[in-house]
Amino acid sequence: MVSLIRSLVKEHLERLAAGDVNLDDFAPRVIEKARSMQGRYSAFITINERLASEKTPKQQMKLPFSVKDNICTRGLRTTAGSKILDNYVPPFDATAVHQIKNAGGFVIGKTAMDEFGFGTFSTNCAYGAPKNPIDPSRVCGGSSGGAACVAAAAEFPHIAIAQSTGGSITAPAAFTGTVGMTPTYGRVSRWGLIDYANSMDRIGVIGKCVYDAALGLSMIAGYDPLDSTSLNAQKTDYTTLIGGDIRKLRIGVPKEYFNGDGSAVVKKNALDLLQRLERFGVVWEEISLPYTKYAISAYYLIALAEASTNLAKFSGLRYGMEGDLDGNYEEYFADLRGRSFGEEAKRRIILGTYARMSGYRDAYYIKALKVRAKIIAEFKGAFARVDAIATPSMPIIAPRFDDVEKLSPIDAYGMDRMTVPANLAGLPTISVPSGSEGGMPTGVQFIADHERDGMLIALAGACEA
Ligand code: GLN
């Protein structure tokens, strides 16, 4: 099985091992390239200009990483895409960042995102929306849009650390023709991640190819006592699973993901790819996941209920921007939050607060939790029969900025219908390119049972081959 995609990361590591890379000027040259990329695509919120003055010896700065801006980086501004954290410089590294630094990685910058992860297109951005490198009149997808943008556009070895709550890795990966790995909930520590919805938030990886994503995952995965939901699992080198035997793997194709609206080409490309996988001995069959249709409603209730409580701490006292101490507490709080949160964040705070108010709690939040349990059970039932589930990554290709503007919030939320169910269930997923439509990439998403991340890497490797 030979990958058709060159991994700049792999080639770089080979050159490093052979002593062919001059590390004295490697990191500064990469920063220079990131700057020029920024001019074209606005992929970053902050570029690590201080890298030159970092204490880490240049000889230990071997592999460039970008980090989504809701993941804390010591001494490097971390805004979560929000003006309310405009001046926040964390005094610590998130566990994932700590791990990449320990393994010779260095952070070139913090990538653009929808404010706090609230979006599907990276257009709810307080610091500018990243442009799709394949067609800059189109979005990168969200909320990890900047991460996917750098992964797609980088002409240097690079791995993007991204994050998903309801599809924020799959969507931008599909829209930019990159590989997005969302690991099993708990596989990567959430310590140092600025929460959106804790019960679903996951840190993952976007890379130009399966190797890059697999290497990134190997570096950031692992048990962390600082995260109470961390999985106590063995460290794995996921890159060794690429090219592994996938004969007799059974793939379920849920009809609910292929029936509704959306691009016919996106669906066809997914099915054609499955057909091509047959030569590796993979078999596939149609399955049904009828609870899928309730996933969007349940997801948005749960995610926003959690988000609205998480955002309460940004009151300009202990966390978040400070304002002039005028008026009483209510006035101070309302003025500061009114000025600092964007429109979508405000909408979500209001929706989430409503959903968990006494009197509405049982009708909305609690009911949504029951639907979530049904969805998890339905996936578990399916995984008794099949090893993986294949769906389009997104219903459409990357839309143009003006078309996103025309979408109502409800229509925009509906775009997450392929990604939200697996995120509700904490299942690992991988999005890989499946072909194109009118020159724009399309993606296929594979979903596996908990802890079968490695099998997804093997499957994705076969797609690439
Ligand atoms: N589009 C989804 C939302 O807006 C998912 C975003 C995410 O995963 N952070 O909630």
Describe this structure in words.
- With 465 residues, the chain is α/β, with parallel strands linked by helices.
- The chain has a domain at 8-244 and 394-408 and 421-464: Amidase signature (AS) domain (Amidase signature (AS) enzymes), CATH 3.90.1300.10.
- Helix content is 38%, strand content 14%.
- It has helices at 8-17, 23-41, 95-102, 145-153, 170-176, 210-220, 256-259, 264-277, 295-310, 329-340, 343-355, 362-383, 401-406, 409-414, 420-425, 453-464, and strands spanning 44-47, 63-68, 105-111, 159-164, 179-182, 202-207, 250-254, 283-287, 388-392, 429-437, 440-448.
- Strands 1-3-2-4-6-5-10-11-9-7-8 form an eleven-stranded mixed beta sheet, sandwiched between helices.
- α4 (145-153) packs parallel to α5 and α9 (295-310) packs across α12 (362-383).
- The chain is globular, with a radius of gyration of 21 Å.
- The N and C termini lie close together (6 Å).
- The relative contact order is 0.15.
- The mean pLDDT is 96.
- The structure holds glutamine.
- Residues 117-120, 143, 164-168, 196, 303, 416 line the site of glutamine.
